[in-house]
């Protein structure tokens, strides 16, 4: 059975997900077979495995860092918020229903067998499991029947490293306060603390580190500097949305929907030299982009109404009427059609008018479509003509289906004689997440925008997206190695005290 180590944080966004990914890459580089694990994840950024099962993107990132194929065993419970008080509950990759927060809290112990079975399967196949907690282990109102922090650590007998975020300030109070609120048996599991996101001279910090050790009796296992790497993070905590990106040579706007999902679709575009990709949630920030993307949404109808009420729908339609590109993916694709009909109240019973940019109709149904897909673009007309016959792959996660009106031709030809999407001059859309992952697709997409703008597309100097991500993970591993006491970490994994 595998040995384990667990990363818990003093708060959300302390850096747990990225640290787990970095440790996975370090351990793999050192010759171990490693898997990530998070018993319960709350996220709208999800992924479909080869088996057609749904899991959180954070564990996909960690699996990539560990150089293994993502599996739902790495994330047995996924909660996808549908509103401020409820979530769609996904267990072992399958939807089991929509529960209010109160109902889920009452039932979450029922999912312990699924959590432990998934963990045991991973444990049989790997040398080390790197576990990620959620939020803080010191949320005293949530500690009863905990299944994701100290409760899970006890279930699988995992040693814990506690991470604090110094960038937000008060890191010593975070760490000491968290440890004080733990029970004695829980404190005994904490084998080290880590200071994350540090800016400045570590020498200035050292007196504080010594005082921290004296107060809690637990060694500081490292100080990780603040760094900028292009690695997927938790969707609710991402800093991508808040970057003050100035318009680049090619300026692309992504509408930041309130319930945006799978924004990782656009990472390949962000990595292209000369491209600015801005997330916009107000008409005043819209500017004069070269292209607009409407992303996926966990609640398509509500997000379409939000666009309508905020004035962003008018901005997008005006942009299209100026013969500029609008591209929709999944929920964004549905919004661009003529109407959306929800006869069974999957989201909101009734019919709503769409943006009218694509001649198609969407009907919601309770069954969720989940599958990985491969295919190629058909003969594409209009601005994106250069995408014609290019291979692509990705995955679908959506409720319902869309039907083209009249003689409209589909945009994409999929394996199994299926079709998806549609394109009309300057408006295009499809259901496929990850559509830009292949370099030929993302580069052709941006080249078309460059040519329309009268720019020389030769400015696009890029590497394969997979190669680019591998470089990012290796850089992350180097930061982890140079920042943490890896000898002590290995001692903790082997059952020692890490001192």
Automatic annotation (TrEMBL):
Give, as in the UniProt entry, the pathway in which the protein acts.
Cofactor biosynthesis; adenosylcobalamin biosynthesis
Query: Residue limits of the CobQ/CobB/MinD/ParA nucleotide binding domain?
Result: 5-226
Q: Name one Pfam family in it.
A: CbiA
For this protein, the record's InterPro entries field holds: Class_I_gatase-like, CobQ/CobB/MinD/ParA_Nub-bd_dom, CobQ_GATase1, CobQ_N, CobQ_synth, GATase_3, P-loop_NTPase
All copies of the CobB/CobQ-like glutamine amidotransferase domain together span 251-440
Is the keyword Cell cycle assigned to this protein? Answer: no
The entry's active site is 330 (nucleophile), 433
CDD domains (UniProt xref): CobQ_N (cd05389), GATase1_CobQ (cd01750)
Which keywords are on file for this protein?
Cobalamin biosynthesis, Glutamine amidotransferase
Main role?
Catalyzes amidations at positions B, D, E, and G on adenosylcobyrinic A,C-diamide. NH(2) groups are provided by glutamine, and one molecule of ATP is hydrogenolyzed for each amidation.
| Listed HAMAP family | CobQ
The record's comment on protein family reads: Belongs to the CobB/CobQ family. CobQ subfamily.
The identity of this protein, by name, is: Cobyric acid synthase
Higher taxonomy:
Bacteria, Bacillati, Bacillota, Clostridia, Lachnospirales
